[in-house]
Amino acid sequence: MKILLLALVFCSYVQASWSCFVVEGGCPNKNVTFWLYTNATRDNPTQIRPMRIDPALFQPPRPVYIIIHGYTGHRDFSPNTEIRPELLDKKAVYVISVDFGPLVRHPCFKEAILNALLISECLGQLINNLVNPGIINKDDLHLIGFSLGAQVAGQTANYVNHTLHHITGLDPAKPLFVVTHDRHRLNHEDADFVDIIHTNPAERGILKPMGHADFYVNFRDGEQPGCENHKSPGSCSHNRAPEYYAESIASENGFWGIKCHNWHPHAFGRCTLQQTQALMGYPASPNNSGTYFLETYANPPFAAGHKGATITDLTTKLFDKTGVQHIDELEQKLERRYLQIEADALKKSKKLAEA
Ligand SMILES: *[C@@H]1O[C@H](CO)[C@@H](O)[C@H](O)[C@H]1NC(C)=O
Ligand SMILES: *[C@@H]1O[C@H](CO)[C@@H](O)[C@H](O)[C@H]1NC(C)=O
Ligand SMILES: *[C@@H]1O[C@H](CO)[C@@H](O)[C@H](O)[C@H]1NC(C)=O
Ligand SMILES: *[C@@H]1O[C@H](CO)[C@@H](O)[C@H](O)[C@H]1NC(C)=O
Predict the structure, then answer these.
(1) In contact, 141 and 132? CB cutoff 8 Å
(2) Which fold has domain 2-223+236-354?
């Protein structure tokens, strides 16, 4: 269990607050709840009890989107707040927002990652109880997870009785997920189609390609445009992933990425851009696998259509500075750097609180 080991390392950096806990018990769990939203009930969702689901809730049959928040989130927090209203406005769908807020509270980062195992198991149980009795069709199901929620979506694949149809990872969390087993990290084996939006690969999000289709947005600049003057440019960039996805649901311009054919662990410095383009976000299609790059505007609407990316040389500031030769080495270095920054910030805020 490398993940446990890493978690312990992290714990020695950050003395967890007394209120942090690793959840015990099984599923269903009262700290992992599921809320069904339709266009008509968007302000008054129905709580779904995984052990007795009313099939009438899912009539008529429609696509079902399961939205999974990240660390410090809940069902009325990112990415729910960006994506849910847009889906309900523009598409005839059901949205289920998962809520496991009590298990991922700040500053309990280590516990949040350990709690992800139970969260994933409980979500797997819900999906089994929807799909096995035929309440919904497995091909109507699409999981969208942000940050830690993207890793939860990947882990959920370990608990379902069928292959998940579609997972979208919105800037999947990097810290403590870099050297863990594939079983714990979202990857292309977790669903028939896994698409990823990378917006903060230097800090909070994973740098390496991990799905069938990986979209790198504004990669050249490190941070997302418009985030430069934010008090935390990294967090602003990370949060752009759900914002871009929400906009993609009804975007006229479209987020068109340009395919890069030779982005791989040994040649991440250079990329010959080809003519192949593909749409990122809601219209992403399993027909377009590979690694794509695109640029956006700094303010909404962000989508820049076929502007694509002007990258011909991916030796960015990030890569130049570190001097490493392999993407795995770089990812580990970035993870350590980020954990150190977080640990320092936490120490500082504790000192302030004590003063
Ligand atoms: C959802 O309801 C709003 C009005 O409340 C309506 O404008 C919109 O078209 C509806 N969306 C769909 C997909 O039916
Ligand atoms: C749910 O979370 C609370 C803290 O918010 C904790 O005290 C409780 O034990 C948890 N319950 C279960 C069933 O895990
Ligand atoms: C589905 O998976 C769960 C958990 O992995 C298992 O307990 C259950 O027996 C499986 N059910 C079927 C119908 O295969
Ligand atoms: C993917 O390609 C197949 C075969 O060419 C085509 O039938 C299908 O419509 C395409 N799917 C999408 C979503 O474009």
Answers:
(1) no
(2) Rossmann fold (3.40.50)
In this structure, which ligand is nearest to the CA of 99?
A: 2
pLDDT tens figures, 7-50: 444 444 444 445 889 998 899 999 999 999 999 999 999 999 99
Q: Write the DSSP string, 61-94.
A: ---EEEEE--TT--TTSTTHHHHHHHHHHHS--E
Question: Could you say which DSSP state residue 30 is in?
Answer: T
Q: Is 285 in the pocket of ligand 4 (CB under 6 A)?
A: yes
Strand partners for 195: 168, 213
The SS3 call for residue 166 is strand
Specify whether the CB–CB gap between 297 and 308 falls below 8 A: no
- In 199-311 the beta strands, taken as DSSP E runs, fall at 213-217, 256-260, 273-279, 290-294
355: helix, coil or strand? Answer: coil
CB 326 within 8 A of CB 276: no
What ligand is nearest to the CA atom of residue 26? 2
For residue 117, give the H/E element and its range: helix 109-131
User: For residue 148, which of 138, 156, 159 has the smallest C-alpha distance?
Assistant: 156
Instruction: Identify whether the C-beta of residue 335 lies closer than 8 Å to the C-beta of residue 174.
Output: yes
- Provide the residue ranges of all domains of the chain, joining segments of one domain with +: 2-223+236-354
Give the position, in ligand 1's atom list, of the atom nearest the Cα of 92.
Answer: 13
CB atoms closer than 10 angstroms to residue 289: 17
Query: What pTM does this model have?
Result: 0.91
% of the chain surpassing 90 pLDDT: 66
In angstroms, what CA-CA distances link 104 with 14, 19, 192, 228, 237? 16, 12, 28, 28, 21
State how far the Cα of 49 lies from the Cα of 181, in Å rounded to an integer: 31
**Of all protein residues, whose CA lies closest to atom 11 belonging to ligand 3?**
161
C-alpha neighbours within 13 Å on the C-beta side of residue 244: 40
Most ligand 2 atoms within 8 A of CB, residue of 31, 111, 119 to mutate? 31
Report whether residue 315 contacts ligand 4, using a CB cutoff of 6 Å: no
